[in-house]
Amino acid sequence: GRNSMSFRIPRMAGQLQTGGGSGKEVGDSSSDSSVTRADVTLYLEHRHQHLENRVEFNAESIAADGVTATQLSLEHALDYARTLHRLKWRSIVNQGDNSGAANATSFNYLNTDLEGSESKGSWSSNATYSYDPSRSLGLNLGGSIAGTKREQQHISYALTEKLVYRLFTTNGVIRRIAEFTEELGYEKTSIADVNGRGSSLFGRFSAAYFPTRYLYGKLRTEITSYPGSGSLQQVHAGEIGLDYEKLKLVASYTEGKKNRESAALPEVAERLWNVEVRKIF
Q1: Are 146 and 124 in contact (CB under 8 A)?
Q2: I need a labelling partner for 132 at 20 to 30 A (CA). Which of 10, 24, 70, 212 fits?
Q3: What would the pLDDT profile of 95-153 be if each residue is shown by its tens digit?
Q4: How far apart, in Å, are the Cα atoms of 228 and each of 191, 196, 261?
């Protein structure tokens, strides 16, 4: 195993920025504005066989036009890899002025708008696990949670699952001839989004067929529901393509439908045809 510890001061300087314009942001300094920036990073790493751990602390301070902003962050990264199994886990805590929002979600069906309140800190933790027992089968699991300190505490979390199955030729040159993918996901937030929805659940299934090395066809269907709101969204798509080294031809069709959520919002249906030709010279 290997352990290491490092101390780094990458920059600590006072500088005079010149140029036109005015404003209170650092990037909009006038000709007589001075900006002082300093940051310090400490980290500790440990590696042993298939496991890697890293803990990092960062402190950063910026002073401009008599205003000082300070941010502190603590991060942890864990990686575990073997022949069939892989695990990746990331966590971070931010504290300080305008430290932003930690985003936990693996997909974004909820459009939470929190621009109106200033963030005082955030934290997040997300993990992904992969299991690949063979080239034909693959499983991915994901989970994440995050929180943001604002006028009211905002917490969100998400869970995802993805299963992939592939078929290959059994004689001659081995190549993929078909692929089937199934995905499930759930997302929930403590503050409802701009449409009044606080959670979402989606399922997606796709299939691809490769009769030759250059010709393929794909089908995809996806259903998203928003528990508690009665909203349901469906998307169905198909695609046929030729994919040569210097020429690509693709024809696709997508159809989407969203049911009527309320008397004020009508049912929505959309259809899209798309043809793409790409030539590389």
Answers
A1: yes
A2: 212
A3: 876 555 444 443 444 444 444 445 568 889 999 999 999 999 999 999 999 988 766 67
A4: 14, 10, 11
**Of the candidates 83, 63, 79, which has an alpha carbon nearest to the alpha carbon of residue 71?**
63
Summarize pLDDT for 256-273 with one digit per residue, the tens: 998 866 556 678 889 999
Q: Are 6 and 43 in contact (CB under 8 A)?
A: yes
> Quick one: average pLDDT of 12-25?
32
- Other C-beta atoms closer than 10 Å to the C-beta of 233 total 17
Cβ 126 vs Cβ 90: under 8 Å: yes
Distance separating alpha carbons of residues 159 and 145, to the nearest angstrom: 9
Cβ atoms of 244 and 270 within 8 Å: the answer is no
- Coil vs helix vs strand at 170: coil
Rounded to two decimals, the pTM is 0.73
Long-range contacts of 11-18 (CB under 8 A, 24+ apart): 11/37, 11/38, 11/39, 12/37, 12/38, 12/39, 13/37, 13/38
